[in-house]
Amino acid sequence: MVAHRRDRHRRHIRSRLGRLQHDPGQVMADFDTKARKARLRLALAGAVAVAALVGGGVLALSLLDSDDSAGQPDAKTPSSAAPSTSQSSTAAPSQVFTPAEAPRVPILKPRTNAEGIGTGFPPTALGATSAAVTYWEDLDLLDDVIARKQWTAIAAKDSPATIDQGVTEVRKVREGVGLPPSGGNPDGLTFATSVKAALVRSLDKSGDVIDVWMVYDRYATIRDKGADENPLRDEVTNLILKWDGTDWKVTTEAQYTAKVKGPRAYDPASKYAWAEGWRVVSDG
C-alpha cells in the first residue's frame, strides 16, 4: 500500500512541477523556513465530540474523552473506554449513524512545536488521534533535511528506524519526480494535507500503543497559478503511536506493526464504516 500511495504522490507532484517549470520566471530553490512552517491547515468545520467505541483492536477506545484535566479518568485505560452517561445520551450503542451524520471529533491543538511540527498532546485516545492528524498534516513532503528533523522530533526513542523510513520515503518521492535525492522544496510550490476522518485501535491492553488510520486529501498550490485543480483525494494511511510518558511518539517496531489490521473502507455515507469506527474529524 505504501508503494501505491508513493506512486500516486509522485504523479501528483510531477504534474505540479511540470506546471511550475513551464513558467520561465520561476526556478527551483528552497522555500523560506518560515513559509514552510506556515503550512496551511485545511480541516472540516465542527466542534462536537462523538461517542466512538472503536472495534477491531485489542481494546475499544473512546474518542470522546477530550478532557485531559487531572480530575478526569485517563481515556487510554480500559476503565474509561466506555462512554459516560452524558456521552451515551449523545450516541447510545443502539443508535446507528453514518460518519457524515454523527457529531464530529474535535482535534486538539498542539501545546508545543518542534521543527515546524505540532507536538504536546494529552495521554488520551483523543490525544493520540490529534497527534496523528497533526503529524500527518505538518510533515514536510519534499525537503529531506526538514523531514529528518521532524521525524526525529516525533519518533519513539526505541524506534530509530522510524526516522530513516520517513526520510527515505521523502527521498524516493523526490527521485520519482525528477528531483535530486536530497534538497529543499521547489520555489513557488506548496502542499497542504487535510485529514478528514480517523479510526483508532489500541494495540495493547494498556492503551499506551494506538494505531490511528486516517483518510486525507492533499492539495498543491503554485504561486500565481491558483489552487490545485486535481488534488489527491481519499488517500488512506496509518500511524502507530506510543505514549512515552510525555507525548505520543510514532513507532514502527515489528511487535506492533504485526498487530495492525486494515479497516473497512471509509465511506461518509456508510453505517458500516461508522460501525467499523470511522469518525469525521474537525479542528477543535
Automatic annotation (TrEMBL):
The lineage of its organism: Bacteria, Bacillati, Actinomycetota, Actinomycetes, Kitasatosporales. This is Uncharacterized protein. Residues 68-121 are annotated as: Disordered. The chain crosses the membrane at residues 42-64. Residues 77-95 have a biased composition (Low complexity). Keywords: Membrane, Plasmid, Transmembrane, Transmembrane helix.
